[in-house]
Amino acid sequence: MKIAFLGAGGVGGYFGGRLAAAGEDVTFLARGAHLEALRRDGLTLSGPAETIRVHPIRATDDPRQAGPADLLVVAVKHWDLEAAAGLVPSLLGPATEVLSLLNGVEAPDRLAREVGRARVLGGVAYVVASIEAPGRIRFGGMAARLAVGGLGGRRSPVAENFAAASARAGFETRVVDDIERAIWEKFVFLSAVSGVTSAVRLPIGPIRTHPAARELLTRAMRETANLGRARGVALPEDAVERQMAICDRLPADSVSSMQTDLSRGNRLELPWLSGGVARMGLESGVETPAHAFLAAVLGPHAAGSS
Question: What is the pTM of this model?
Fold first, then answer.
């Protein structure tokens, strides 16, 4: 299958790079210094136990050179979603499907407004990866994997084909019936962990062992879970306990990607994480004081300083 990645950062670069290294037909849509490095030197994925270099690699800033694709994977930061959505139609063929791998919970619906729900796959990326330098992705030691599925439980042969390609590339893509639930389960974790680690400016270890900080983390998770249920998502009763258990298994020095962006002076995805929870809470009549606090504390840094 032909796969186009709109975005070649930590998530898109990692999964797209592994697929390309395995011989799959992959094209990246990128820009700036990252695109120049991809064209010149290829893509390098560096982890604790392995380094993968793909050279040459197909990368362009012209959608006409990347499409049409069987699957278009959208893996940009949220602030680039509007611009990315405008490019999507030029990458579509008659049967192209569009997979969202953005953080948060709102991107699949935004893409569906562009191309229709019948073309959209929701996705959840479980990976620790970021751009170390142009053309270079640094990833962590956890087993990276994806969950994907059609919105509303729609079955998708394209998703099944992508799962098979993923297996050939050495990572798991699980096709799930209720992708909305999977997206919100991660959002319970991500919205809280990103906000608290960034506000406290410490990795997860000291936070989970400090009683007051741990309580803030738990409350933030509970607010997101309550919001999801209020918006019709079938989250399990023990959703918070499950996500806290994941926190307790993480290496003590684990940091969130938003915390890394904060430390580098980069723009933050705050409006779609804690800020998004607070905004959607107002819309749905759900109280979210912990996330409102986190959004207020981090708000002055959201635009970045670099």
Answer: 0.93
